[in-house]
């Protein structure tokens, strides 16, 4: 089929270069600027920027939160000092919980939350909210840039109204200064207060040895040869607040050996007819010792396998323990009961401190 001038085919061919040219120009334009920068929206002033009364209300709100943080910190310290660790209370919906832990958690949480909430409210309502875009620059800034940063910092400090809003400034300093006191108070849980508490136990001269299982005083005939009995000072109650603190240092192992099997003379002198009393607390890290080998007179700590010879002054024969088990000097009173003749002569438990 022949083509004629002005036909559809001719018109398409004539228009094609122009269409390709337009398409090419559009593609170049898109490639040059695929996403146009819309720029920053116009700055809208906040109510606090134009109304001093609103700014005052925000200032008081921030100061209130900082003050509430200080009150919560004082509540934390008061709860730690006044609430006994054993006190259990019912709180819906948590059920029965420790009153001390609940009080400490809420008071410290409120103290920290109020500092954060106060700072956020301060920044959103009173500090400058004008956005200032800046192009990225090399890590090592030029002197001019450093000067500009310092100038911007001074400007930001001025616009934050830190110097003008003295109520916010003072309460913020108070809240930040008091919150660390909560951590300082918690240092009390690291151990007993300084003094002689680590070097002495509840044992005193004349105290009877009480069988842990029967809660009755021990007589020499209650301890058979080769047997191991556990004892504690009189007057202890499993439900008392100080039970764990006392028994952790005063727990005793009572064992009866044949007098001829005792190798250490002092051990024999400190016992009664072959009955000797040693601390039950391992001198490695303080685990309770409970495994006794009747034939060898050895006791084994189950935590790290420290082994002690009860026939030779409780000395260490294996394991990481650094000292022999402390021995308690015992005798029999006029009623026929075993009693202590004093406290241990050396510290009980872990031997990581110097024993001068």
Give the total of beta strands: 13
Average of pLDDT: 85
Structural class: alpha+beta
How many H/I helices?
8
Strand and helix order = HHHEEHHHEEHEHEEEEEEEE
The biggest sheet amounts to: 5 strands, antiparallel
**Unreliable spans:** 1-20, 26-30
Radius of gyration: 40 Å
Strand order of the largest sheet: 3-4-5-6-11
Rough outline: elongated
Terminal residue distance: 121 Å
Overall structural domain count? 2
Helicity, in percent?
25-40%
Strand content: 5-15%
Structure characterization notes:
The chain is an alpha+beta fold and 356 residues long. Helices cover 39% and strands 13% of the residues. The strands form 4 sheets. A 5-stranded antiparallel sheet has the order 3-4-5-6-11. β9 and β10 form a beta hairpin. It is elongated, with a radius of gyration of 40 Å. The chain crosses the membrane at residues 61-83, 103-123, 167-187.
Write the layout of secondary structure elements.
Layout: H1 8-32, H2 47-50, H3 52-82, E1 88-91, E2 95-98, H4 99-125, H5 143-159, H6 166-186, E3 210-211, E4 228-232, H7 243-250, E5 252-256, H8 265-269, E6 275-279, E7 291-293, E8 298-300, E9 307-309, E10 315-318, E11 327-328, E12 330-332, E13 338-340
Antiparallel strand pairs: 1-2, 3-4, 4-5, 5-6, 6-11, 7-8, 8-9, 9-10, 12-13
Helix pairs in contact: 3-4, 3-6, 4-6
């Amino acid at each position: 089929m022949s083509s004629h001038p002005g036909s559809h085919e001719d018109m398409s061919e004539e228009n094609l270069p122009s269409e390709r040219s337009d398409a090419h120009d559009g593609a170049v334009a898109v490639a040059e600027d695929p996403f146009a920068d819309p720029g920053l929206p116009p700055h809208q002033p906040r109510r606090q920027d134009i109304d001093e009364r609103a700014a005052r209300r925000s200032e008081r709100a921030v100061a209130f939160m900082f003050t509430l943080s200080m009150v919560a910190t004082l509540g934390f310290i008061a709860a730690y000092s006044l609430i006994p660790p054993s006190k259990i209370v019912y709180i819906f919906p948590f059920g029965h919980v420790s009153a001390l832990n609940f009080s400490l958690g809420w008071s410290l949480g409120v103290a920290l939350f109020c500092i954060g909430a106060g700072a956020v409210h301060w920044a959103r309502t009173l500090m400058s909210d004008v956005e200032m875009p800046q192009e990225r620059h090399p890590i090592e800034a030029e002197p001019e840039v450093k000067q500009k940063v310092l100038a911007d910092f001074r400007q930001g400090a001025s616009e934050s109204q830190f110097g003008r809003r003295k109520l916010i400034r003072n309460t913020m300093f108070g809240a930040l200064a008091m919150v660390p006191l909560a951590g300082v108070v918690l240092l009390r849980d690291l151990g007993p207060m300084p003094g002689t508490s680590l070097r002495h136990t509840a044992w005193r001269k004349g105290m009877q040895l009480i069988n842990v299982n029967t809660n009755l005083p021990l007589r020499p005939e209650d301890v058979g040869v080769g047997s191991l009995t556990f004892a504690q000072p009189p007057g202890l109650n499993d439900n008392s607040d100080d039970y764990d603190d006392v028994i952790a240092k005063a727990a005793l192992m009572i064992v009866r050996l044949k007098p001829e099997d005792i190798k250490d003379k002092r051990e024999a002198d400190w016992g009664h007819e072959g009955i000797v009393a040693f601390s039950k607390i391992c001198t490695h890290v303080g685990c309770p010792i409970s495994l006794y080998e009747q034939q060898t007179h050895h006791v084994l700590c189950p935590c790290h396998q420290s082994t002690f010879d009860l026939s030779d002054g409780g000395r260490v024969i294996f394991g990481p323990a650094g000292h022999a088990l402390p021995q308690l000097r015992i005798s029999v009173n006029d009623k026929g009961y075993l009693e202590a003749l004093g406290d241990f002569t050396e510290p009980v438990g872990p031997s990581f401190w110097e024993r001068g």
